[in-house]
Amino acid sequence: MQKYFKSIGSDLPSALVVFLVAIPLCLGIAVASGLNEFSGIIGGIVGGIVVGIISGSNLSVSGPAAGLTAIVSAAVLKLPAVEAFFLAVVIAGVFQLLMGIFKLGVIGDYVPNSVIKGMLAAIGIILILKQLPHLVGYDKDFEGDETFIQASGENTFSSVINSLNHLTPLAVVIGVVGIAILILFETKFIKSIKVFQIISGPLVVVVVGVLLHYFLSDTAQPFTVKSVDLVNIPIAKDTKEFISFFHLPNWSFITNKDVWITAVTLALVASLETLLGIEAVDKLDPMQRITPPNRELVAQGAGNIVSGLLGGLPLTSVIVRSSANVNAGARTKMSTIFHGTLIFICVAFVPNLLNLIPKAALAAVLIFTGYKLAKISIFKDYWKKGWEQFMPFVITITAIVLTDLLKGVLIGIGVGIFYVIRSNFRTAIFMVQDGNQYLIRLRKDVSFFSKPKLKHIFENMPNNASVIIDLTKAEFIDQDIIDTINEFDMNAPERNIQVTVKKSTYNESHKLVGSDQFNISDSAH
Fold first, then answer.
1. Sign of the alpha-carbon dihedral angle for 230, 236, 237, 238
2. Are residues 405 and 288 in the same domain?
């Protein structure tokens, strides 16, 4: 517990930044999901406090996720009542608890690093592209959207282009000034000043944005041509109305088949997004700490149970807010817990104050976060690593930008597997030549994918050659490879080729190379 209090100087300012970023995202995702805005707020509060307390992650932030929007909106329309959907969220949480208990969190370990890095860079690019319209005052798409095809009928690129025809001058001023402040805060000079080591750049951007809007919105043209969109939190007139924002699930729908289908779908998708999220955030952690995946599933399950019981959206670990948390300098999970607490306090007691924040100021913060995730240096690093790493990285980015997070990651994993197989295929068979003598060595696992290469070597072997086929380094040889070697050996005398096969005792005793199926012996023909 002592380490958490030691880092409070870093965690509290970071929590404030994440809190400011989370508010519009929670509201936007709730509206896009077809639910009341307050459902998103509940998800943000629970994701911060409940998941934050139980989770073993130091930097991951949980809350409503854009990746679940399509599932949630379809379920809300299909289920008989919104209370039935909240019941599905509770059941999904129970499934996640069981997944954590039965240690299914290892799924995330099978995602290649190139795909994880590609996912982070793609999120950065999406943040920049999606927030540019909000930066200039074009707020047709909801905050937090990550899909290529938008609900408005536009796509990511057309939205950016159309935003140029709907510029709000005051929003542009607030956004550009905000980005300039963030760039300034990255300079060595500003970092050397003690006061700016305490006050974070994003917080200054928000305060300046509020002041610019307050003083310039009432002036003459051009700033009064269009109004600037502000954060819009539901405001309760009294305590009774505030309590009415919360909704209990209706347990009478427990036997409804669609409730269970929705619950299973939410549990699987939310768990996969969470496991991908914590893998990505761990790679951003400057202290290189590792999040226990099974404990994270338990934490997410508990969070979804509480969120569903209160009428909130389903939760996952969310990369955008987590990235903002890392960039703001958070050190422990107290930042996540503080941000959830801040959401509750401000929504309950000072919502009018939050509704003064221009969305353009928050867009500036998110665009700068996106830039840090998708720096040119990251692309250069993967280019230097070779095609086996660069191609899955780039294709993952492209797929996520043109589809959505989950589809893009699955495509990236597929490409990564292809390059792993390709790499194994290229290194499984090794050949050296010395005059008319040839050594063909089979190494480690030799699958049927290596058959074309082996056949090509045999077909191009010159007449009168002496060939040694060394199997001593192989742990597995596919039957197709055995058949190919046998066929070559049978036809070798016709070309006056001398064949010698070397097999180890390990190969013989474990029958990994099917020694009883070889027609050739260890002696030369």
1. negative
2. no
